[in-house]
Amino acid sequence: MDAVRARGITKCFGDVVALDGVDLDLAAGQIHGLVGPNGAGKTTLLGLLLGLAVPDEGSLEILGAPVGRALTAPDGVAGFVDGPGLYPQLTARQNLAALAKLRGRSASIDDVLADVGLSDVADDKVRGFSLGMRQRLGLAAALLTEPRLLVLDEPSNGLDPAGKRHVHGVLTRLADNGVTVIVSSHRMDDVEALCTEVTILATGRVVFTGPLDKLSAENRELDYRLRTSDPLVAAETAAETPGITVVDSGELLVVRAEIPALDELVSRLVRAGTAVRELAPVVSPLEAAFLALTEEAAR
Ligand SMILES: Nc1ncnc2c1ncn2[C@@H]1O[C@H](COP(=O)(O)OP(=O)(O)OP(=O)(O)O)[C@@H](O)[C@H]1O
C-alpha cells in the first residue's frame, strides 16, 4: 500500500492556483524530497497531507484511507509546515507533555527528546531556543505520535552541519522501520544526501517525480570544473575533444559535457602528460535538473 496517492489535486487561493493537477505517489518507507522555487506550492501540498486544508479538486488517499472534506489530521500522520507550533513560555518537556495530553496516544517523551538530541535542554524554556533547537523539538513533537507518514516543511532550516546529520540519521532510521517521510527543502545537497525520490514542483505543477538517479540520467549534459597542471594545454585539448563545449577557459577550465566525452578528455590530458588535479560538477546533477526544469516551466 502506498502511503500517499494523490491524483489531479488542485488548490486555489482566490485567483492564485497554488496546485494545478498534482499527482503524487509515496511508497511506504520512502524518504521523498519536495523541491521547487518560492511559491511553487510545496507548503500547500504538505498542508493538504497534514489535513490543514482540503483540495478543491482531485482525490487524495493517505495511508489507504480517502481524505474527505473535513479539516482533520489524517490518522497516522504528523509533522509541520511553516515551522513547528510551540509554546515559548513552556520547557521542551512541558511542550511535549501538553501535546501528549491533547493527542491521547504517545511515545515516551524522554525517548523522543533523546532521539532529536535535546535531552540536555529538556527543562529549558523554548523561549530561549535557537531556530535549530525549535526545529528539533518540532520533530520530537511529530515523533511523539509514532506516525506512519511524517510531513516536514524545511526541517533542516537553522540546523548546523552536525544537527543536520543528526536529523538525517533520525529520518533514515524511521524510514528503515517503514515510516514514510516527505520533506521540502531549498537545499539540493540535503535532498541528495537524504532522499531516494524527489518531486519538483514549478508554479503548482509537477515537472518531475521519481528516483534521483533517473533525474540525473535525463539531464546528462552538465558543466564541470577542471583544474589541471597546464591550463593552456587543457583548454586546447578540450576544444579538440568531440562532445566537449568549453564554457570558460581561465585558470580553472569549465566544460559542458556528458560523461563519455568527459572520460575522453581526461584520457587525452593524461596522454599529453597534463595532470588532472580536480574535476567536479559546477552544480550537482539535482540542482542542474532543478534549474533546467523550473526555468522551462517558468517560460
Ligand atoms: N493562505 C493563502 N492565501 C493566499 N495565497 C496563498 C495562501 N497560501 C499560499 N498561497 C499562494 O499559493 C502559492 C503557493 O504557495 P506555497 O506557500 O505553497 O509555496 P512554497 O512552494 O511553499 O513557497 P516557499 O518556497 O516560498 O515556501 C503562492 O503563490 C502563495 O502566495
UniProtKB/TrEMBL annotation:
The keyword Ion transport does not apply. It comes from the Bacteria. InterPro entries: AAA+_ATPase, ABC_transporter-like_ATP-bd, ABC_transporter-like_CS, P-loop_NTPase. Keywords: ATP-binding, Nucleotide-binding, Transport. GO terms for molecular function: ATP binding. Residues 4-228 form the ABC transporter domain. Pfam families: ABC_tran. PANTHER family: ABC TRANSPORTER, ATP-BINDING PROTEIN. Belongs to the ABC transporter superfamily. This is ABC transporter ATP-binding protein. The lineage of its organism: Bacteria, Bacillati, Actinomycetota, Actinomycetes, Pseudonocardiales.
